[in-house]
Specification:
Helices cover 9% and strands 55% of the residues. It is mainly beta. The chain has a single domain, classed as Porin (Beta Barrel).
Length: 264
């Protein structure tokens, strides 16, 4: 309770200090296409009898997600400043492929020597993310101004789940061997980018619309994955896995002071 009161107090004080010219406050959200690069099968295909199938990689499938949160920023001059966000975001990856059987499960044997068996794998991750970006705003334009934001992004994973289905039968529930939280690290970090336009309704109120992207720099796999047959026949050593996304971002903001025409 005391921590919550202190957090509210700090927020109020910070707002009072920065609620002056150049400070902007808003909310934003994004719709993303999510990716996990070099995420091998990690034992997913163990039920298949053919050795080359068990070490195969799986095809990527389109995986969507999104984020939403609050935005705080300060323009040191009319054309550049700093912008930070605190937001909740989803991440992960879907995979689906067909492999030559048979696949032997507790429920039975599926697929013959020349019959293909469908395999689906889905990883779901959720993070609290904090990007801190330098921001450049074009001096050109009155109603609309172009902007670019670039900087580091930090993420703390809050949830993780994994589901594998072979021949539409759940093969790898979270309770088997290791939990998803053990398989994927808690902390993530990378580079965030936003490019778009600020569209002013008034001198102080504006909407922004643009493209966002993120490239992770850290391996998201936990140590236990290296014990589950992480390798594939395309690799001679362990390959790190990283989060990435690209999407469409929209937001609404209020710029304190005299607004967009202020020469800071």
């Amino acid at each position: 309770m005391k921590k919550n009161i202190l957090l509210v107090f700090i927020t109020v004080i910070s707002f009072s200090l920065f609620a002056q010219k150049g400070f902007h406050l808003g909310a934003s959200g994004a719709f993303d296409a999510n990716f996990i690069y070099t995420q091998n099968n990690y034992g997913t295909l163990a039920p298949f009898t053919e050795p080359y199938v068990r070490v195969s990689e799986m095809n990527y499938r389109f995986t969507y997600g999104g984020n939403g949160g609050i935005v705080l920023g300060y323009n040191f001059k009319s054309d550049w400043g700093l912008q930070g966000e605190v937001r909740y975001a989803t991440a992960g990856q879907k995979y689906e492929d067909n492999f030559i059987g048979p696949a032997i499960l507790p429920q039975g044997t599926f697929g013959g020597s020349y019959e293909r068996v469908n395999v689906k794998r889905e990883i779901k991750l959720a993070y609290v993310q904090i990007p801190i970006m330098a921001k450049y705003i074009s001096r050109f334009g009155h109603t609309a101004k172009l902007f670019v934001c670039l900087g580091p992004q930090f993420g703390v994973r809050t949830a993780a789940s994994e589901q594998v289905k072979i021949a539409d039968i759940t093969y790898l529930p979270d309770s088997l061997a290791f939990t998803s939280k053990q398989k994927f690290k808690t902390f993530d970090m990378g580079i965030a980018l936003q490019i778009g336009a600020e569209v002013y309704v008034t001198d102080n109120l504006y909407f922004d619309l643009g493209l966002s992207g993120y490239a992770g720099l850290l391996d998201l796999n936990g140590k236990v994955l290296k014990t589950l047959g992480w390798f594939s026949h395309n690799d001679v050593k362990y390959q790190q896995s990283r989060n990435a996304n690209v999407g469409l971002v929209v937001g609404i903001h209020y710029l304190f002071g005299r607004g967009k025409e202020e020469d800071y």
